[in-house]
Design brief:
The chain is of the alpha+beta class and about 130 residues long. It has five helices and six strands, in the order H-E-H-E-E-H-E-H-E-E-H. The model has no long low-confidence stretch (mean pLDDT about 95).
Length: about 130
């Protein structure tokens, strides 16, 4: 299955889906990740440490510090990794509404982490974008 590159088609077909769980961003050392049973949905190695995105309850159970609690919105359209302007258009509209976003692009979909208290507003904005 080939991903979509056409910006208008991506925006029209993005079908945002709000996930139920709450997520947090934490940073841990390579030693910690090997010792802990975290099951993160994302890890990214930076020179300062390993960033993990995981469920809030898992972070709290492991006494991992975090700042901010996020909801995950998956844009269920299969976007091509080389599509131009998709996230720029979306994050620009969310920014105009005062909604911060941490975006992650995976092979099939783009995923947006938005503050818990802004999740419903973000869904509203995304649906408005898709309808235009």
């Amino acid at each position: 299955m080939v991903g979509i590159k056409n910006l208008d088609k991506l925006l029209k077909e993005m079908k945002p889906e709000l996930m139920d769980k709450e997520y947090v961003f934490c940073t841990i050392s390579p030693e910690q990740i090997n010792k802990m049973q975290l099951d993160p949905i994302l890890t990214f190695k930076e020179k300062e440490g390993i960033t993990v995105i995981l469920e809030r309850k898992t972070a709290e159970a492991n006494s991992l510090p975090y700042s901010g609690v996020w909801k995950l919105i998956t844009l269920t359209v299969h976007s091509d990794l080389s599509a131009v302007g998709f996230l720029a258009r979306i994050t620009g509209k969310l920014a105009k509404e005062g909604i911060s976003v941490n975006a992650v692009s995976a092979y099939y979909h783009d995923h947006l982490f938005v503050p818990v208290e802004k999740a419903d507003d973000a869904i509203r904005v995304l649906k408005e974008i898709a309808e235009k």
